[in-house]
Amino acid sequence: MGIVVIGAVFVDIKGYPSMQYIAGGRNVGNVVQVHGGVSRNIAEDIANVELRPTFVGLVDETGIGIDVVDKLKNHKVNTKYIRKVKDGLGSWLAIFDNSGDVVASISKRPDLSEIARILDEQGDEIFKDADSIIIEFDMEKDILKRVFALAQKYDKKVYAVVSNMTIAVERRDLLKNCACFVCNQQEAGIFFSDVYDDMDPEQLREILVCKLKASQIPKMVITLGELGSVYATCDGESGYVKSRQVVVTDTTGAGDSFFAGVAIGLTYGKSFRESCEIGTRLAASVIATKENVCPRFLPEEFGIDASMIKDFE
Q1: What separation in angstroms does the CA of 62 have from each of 11, 67, 68, 88, 304?
Q2: Which phi and psi (to 5°) does residue 128 adopt?
Q3: pLDDT per residue rounded down to tens, the chain (313 residues)
Q4: Per the domain annotation, does 13 fall within a domain?
Q5: How far is Cα 76 from Cα 311, in angstroms, rounded to an integer?
Q6: Whole-angstrom Cα distance, residue 219 to residue 282?
Q7: Which of 62, 95, 111, 124 has the most neighbouring CB atoms within 10 Å?
Q8: DSSP E strands: which ranges in 190-307?
Q9: CA distances (Å), 1 to each of 12, 46, 70, 306, in order?
Q10: CATH of the domain at 220
């Protein structure tokens, strides 16, 4: 069944200034609407590396909800476990400056309670043949507990990504069950109740090693934007991966693509460092465009044997 991704779907409404952006002022520009959401983006990223993922999530019964499912199908994502429910779609409104960075945003989260029912009714068939599991860690705790129970039952590794660290930090006791956790520098400060904004990669790498030994989180990656990323394990392995230099168009989705690359690498036999390098390459490909997801790649471009991938029926 490939990698199984569990999480929310959003509609992203993005505004780009056509002239110099003025904070607090009225800006002329272009407004676009695209399918988004951390988990939905990750599922499409994985599909764009021809790895046939399965997405477990919700949409609503509007035309947008139908379009989301159709697009995922066209990208070879297994959509069998997507359900249409009222308030199934979230929304994210963002304003970008002339450098492609988000300067203001607001979001409305969807009601994800139906995902718990999907896992209760179809969890065994979803997990039994999965290559690994990806979860949005700020989902309701009851959903996370169901995921970890099924993952333990079928001996599957779970990789955790976060869209709202303020919520996710309330579930930190469950992170010991995750094979790897990925967040950005600001989120890491929230998670560890500290401030890391002014630290260089080497300082942050050393701190991460100590933090993971104390917390017993198996693996963790902290992304640092244009400075790259640092990674560590609770056993003391650690390292730093530089970013790829590209012209920035839109940073939306870069973190999701990075996470997708890390999960792809760890799922299909790559080292921790190699997995972070795959994530770095995918993130760079997203930053250079206005798309939320990476362009098409082949598994062989990352040293992954495509014959390992089982297509869904």
Answers
A1: 12, 9, 10, 10, 38
A2: -55, -45
A3: 799 999 999 998 989 999 999 988 899 999 998 898 999 999 999 999 999 999 999 999 999 999 999 999 999 999 999 999 998 999 999 999 998 788 999 989 899 999 999 999 999 999 999 999 999 999 999 999 999 999 999 999 999 999 889 988 999 899 999 999 999 999 999 999 999 988 999 999 999 999 999 999 999 999 998 899 999 999 999 999 999 988 777 777 899 999 999 999 999 999 999 999 999 999 999 988 777 899 999 999 999 987 766 665 5
A4: no
A5: 9
A6: 20
A7: 95
A8: 219-223, 229-233, 238-241
A9: 28, 13, 19, 14
A10: 3.40.1190.20
Q: How many domains does the chain have?
A: 1
Task: For residue 188, give the nearest of 289, 80, 201 by alpha carbon.
Answer: 201
**pTM for the complete prediction?**
0.91
Beta carbons within 8 Å of 73's beta carbon, 6+ residues apart:
79
Write out the residue range of the structural domain in which residue 290 sits.
Answer: 1-7+36-87+109-306
Closest CA to 279 of 100, 291, 297: 297
Question: Strand order of the sheet with strand 89-96?
Answer: 29-36, 9-17, 89-96, 102-108
DSSP 242: P
Give the CA angle between residues 153, 154, 159 to the nearest 5°: 100
CA torsion, points 60, 143, 216, 46, in degrees to nearest 10?
-40
Work out whether the CA dihedral 196, 192, 214, 223 comes out positive or negative. negative
